[in-house]
Amino acid sequence: xxxxxxxxxxxxxxxxxxxxxxxxxxxxxxxxxxxxxxxxxxxxxxxxxxxxxxxxxxxxxxxxxxxxxxxxxxxxxxxxxxxxxxxxxxxxxxxxxxxxxxxxxx
Length: 106
What we know:
The chain is mainly alpha-helical. It contains five helices and two strands. It has a two-stranded parallel ribbon.
């Protein structure tokens, strides 16, 4: 298993997405196989993660098969809020097992 890096922050628009994309691009340029995952995306329609899209653009426009399989964005909710509120509003749980399984497969 390769290395896993986790980027976190406590607010919206603090730079997590940009920092993740820049780190992925840097590693790519060093010939390291790299893929990013957005554990929980809110404020997006099903099947689409704006953060993952930004990562891919920063990585040169690559689309991975794992993106199509939704492994790189295993939980997406429509309402732009905290994951727990978005999940409650959609009447479905935050599926921690789906997140864990996607991360393990990646």
